[in-house]
Amino acid sequence: MHQEELALILAPRGRDAAVVAQVVEKVHVGTRICVDLAELMRELSAGAGCALIAEEALTPEGIAVVSGWLSQQPAWSDFPFIILSSADTARARRNTAGALDPLGNLLILERPLHAETLCHAVLSSLRGRRRQYVARAQLVERQEAERNLRLALKAGRLGAWRIRISDMALFASDDCKADFGRQPHDAFSYDELIAAVHDQARASLETAVEQARGESTDFDCACLISWPDGSAHWIEMRGRAVLDEQGQVESIAGVTQDVTERRLAEQALQTSRGELHDLNESLERRILERTHELARANDRLTTEVAERERSQSTLVQLQKMEAVGQLTGGIAHDFNNLLNSIVGNVDLIRIKAKDEQVLRYAENAKRAVARGAKLTAQLLAFARGQNLDLRPTDVPALIEGMSDLMTTALGSRIPMRTQFDPNLPLAKADQNQLELAILNLVINARDAMPQGGSLELRAEARLAESGDLAPGRYVVITVRDSGTGIPPELITKVFDPFFTTKPVGKGTGLGLSQVYGIARQSGGIARILSERNKGTSVEIWLPDAAADVATTGDNRANTTGSAPAAKVLVIDDDADVRALIVESLQVLGYDVLQADCGQIGLDMLRAEVPDLLMVDFAMPGMNGAEVIVEARKDYPALPVVMATGYAELPMPSGAIGAHRVLQKPFSLQQLGAIVADSLMAPPAS
Question: What stretches of 86-185 adopt beta strand conformation (E)?
Answer without folding.
Answer: 106-110, 159-164, 169-172
